[in-house]
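User: Fold this, then the next.

Assistant: Folding the first:
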Amino acid sequence: MSVDRHGFIDVVETHPFQDEFSPLMQDVQSRLCPSTVPLIHSVYVYGSVATGKAVAGRSDLDLSLILNGLPSERDSKRIESTRRELEAAHPIVSKVDFDIGLLRDVLSAGSGLAWRYWLRHHCRCIAGVDLAEGVPLFRPSRTLAIAVNGDFQEVLEKYRRLLLASGPASDCGRLMREASRKLIRSTNMLRKETDHDWPDTLQEHVSRLQRLFPTHGNELHYFLKQAQEPDAMPECFAERLEAFVNWMSNAVDNSPQ
């Protein structure tokens, strides 16, 4: 599990980006630099590109954008246009994703906990002022797990509805993949405040849940497969997703503190 010898959750190591992804990262820094787009406070890369494990033509580019304030409709369209331009110009990644947050939320004493953990442990700043600087390392805790994934019911219900409303030409595979990943990572909330482990990979989350709940851990292997190679019928996936979310909601509510 991803915890160092001092009991702190590991951080992403800083190292040069893989050579084949360097032109993409330089383009990102140019297009999304705060001096070019004043609304942007800072930009962070996470996932396989950040860790140096990206696979050309298969991996996504995952970016977190922190904005100085609420974007106008014009701002949102400009940001989305930039995302599409990056995606089209660099087929070395399968897609480009933006997670967008507000500076005020990151700095908030309470609601900013998840953002500060995210930026400190999972991200590398590539443009602007690094908000992770000066943020203490986090130790595993139930409080942190809930702060990071406490929205799982709302998020997964949205995915379920999108799948059921999808037409034949819709991107069901992407929706099932993203929903499965969110579901698997959210199982980290099924922990005690005193637990010292902190799963990192999807497989680690699945293995952990299977040890705690053997009868339900097997079901998570289904979602692990869909997170990697989605091939389920959308209606079937939505039904199993709803059932697992309902079980997990009750398990979280009744989990020992």
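Now the next one, as you asked:
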Amino acid sequence: MISEAEYETRATPELKRLLEALDALESDEIEAELESDILTLEFSDDTRYVINSHRAARQIWMAAERSAWHFDWDAERQAWVAQKNGDELWQALGAVIGKKLGHPVELARSS
């Protein structure tokens, strides 16, 4: 488990980068909002996906389509990875959004 200080320097900026990538999609089918370390995605059919910082566990959690992921920081991969199945946060989010919208979605990472 990473330290609390490292978690703080990684988790919130990651959520902000995800918001920027979602905003860059410029889709009428999805709205994204970040408030208090909770990133909410709302689709035109009122479906919501939630990605949030979970400080106590030092993880980023995602809930979408009756599924949940708990992402831990993986220093080797330099990415947030769900230990349960090896999914990487950005790829997992792109996949669930793509499935919802019915076409592939690739989220462009900013640095």
